[in-house]
Amino acid sequence: MIIHTTVNNFIILLINLLTSILAARLLGTDGRGQLALVLLYPQMIATMGLLGLDRGIAIIGGQKRLNYPVASTTGLAMMLSMPVMLISYFIITDNILNPSLEKLSLIYIFYVPALYLFMFSGSLFNGLGMFFEYNLSRLYFYGSYLVLIIVFWLADMPYLDSFVYASLLSVYTAMLVSMVLHLKVWRRRAFEGVRWLWMPGNFFKDVALIFRKAFVFVVPGVLLVVATKLDQIIVSGYLELKYLGFFVVYMAYSLLLGPIVNAVSVNIFHLGVINSKNNIAKIVRLTIFIYICGSILLVLLAPFLIELLYGELYLEHIDTARLLVLSSFLFFCSKTINEFMMGKSMVRQDVIASVIFMVFLLFFTNLLIPELSLFGVAISMVIANAIRSFYLGIVFHQSSGIRLPELLFVRVKDLKWIILLLRRVIKV
Q: Is the pLDDT of residue 380 over 80?
């Protein structure tokens, strides 16, 4: 499962790399900062509006307890969309002062219904272990984004508009693909014996069941979104917009290992759902080893790769980029071990970890930004992520009984297993 998901995620990595290169080179630092600001609040409010329901759907769906999976998830997506879009409207008009950027951001909030349908479908695929369908829908999302950018670019649409509209329409493309996979897969095998005649009573029973299961994920889900977007909010609030452009490009570079993280996290979460501890220590240990090797390469090659990919303009704050690679490495480690606990509906540690991260990030950025500017933000993120990772490592040990050295020290037989996996990946 992990191999095929990783291969798919590396394809997505290449697509994301191309889109980030186009954005950095076509928009420049100011334009890249503008794009980040346009997308910031719609994406943040929409993700917060999920209320942990995506996690609830994954668990309930994995247990095959939904009466009408397609109708229930679709109806739930529609129910959530309108209030989320309304809240987004007020937050955008209150926080974005530039009229043209405000207009684009308000248009972008119409991506919310499609996003929820896409994400809820993916959650069902994930819960049921249907990783082919999960990967295919994601591939269409990222692939259509790149294609639409190129189409709008060739049509001489303004660069900023091209990226915003391409992002909006790509979500609808992924939604349509997800709905087709919904009908095809569930009719064939996923919910055998379930009656497909939709009845409002059973719909509300499904929704109530999802909300009950998702309730424990509401607070950690909201906090995680705020923690994820807090860095951009800080940069856009304290510094000029061009620094936000530098920051998002450097973050994109630091997240180049993301496909591995996503592939492992999806499978570890599924292991948590089914409460399986088979090979969990080895999977985490090897994953962290790969993170270490990849992060070292990204730090050493930062000047060369950033100039090659994004242009000489982005070499101005290269030390910030290196620090953000270290910060992302720490985040990857904490996310990997936390997914198993989240799959078991353990959320207390996630809430505490998010609060720890935000408190330390706010404290150190307020302390360091006046003197160190963007570099101070990067230092603050390293400190905050280090403390969060340390805390989650302790909780993971307490909950699983796995000692931390088992997660950190690679063995000879582990290296042989990595070589075997690489051979299998090459064959795929």
A: yes
In Å, how far are 151, 161, 248 from 34, measured between CA atoms? Answer: 21, 11, 11
Measure the CA–CA gap between 108 and 344, rounded to whole angstroms.
Answer: 35
173 touches 47 (CB < 8 A): no
Can you tell me the distance from the alpha carbon of 387 to that of 265, in angstroms, rounded to the nearest whole number? 20
Neighbours of 361 (CB within 10 A): 22
State how far the alpha carbon of 44 is from the alpha carbons of 23, 92, 112, 374, 425, in Å.
20, 11, 11, 22, 35
Q: Give pLDDT, residue 199.
A: 57
Please, are residues 414 and 282 in contact by the beta-carbon 8 Å criterion? yes
CA separation (Å) from 382 to 322, 393, 425?
11, 16, 32
Q: Which pLDDT does position 414 carry in this prediction? A: 62
Least confident of 83-97, 134-148, 306-320, 407-421: 407-421
Give pLDDT, residue 6: 58
The pLDDT of residue 122 is: 78
Torsion angle, CA of 303/309/314/318, rounded to 10 degrees? -30
- Among 64-73, 91-100, 233-242, 307-316, the least confident range: 64-73
Higher pLDDT, residue 76 or 246: 246
pTM confidence score: 0.78
Quick count: other Cβ atoms within 10 Å of Cβ 91? Answer: 16
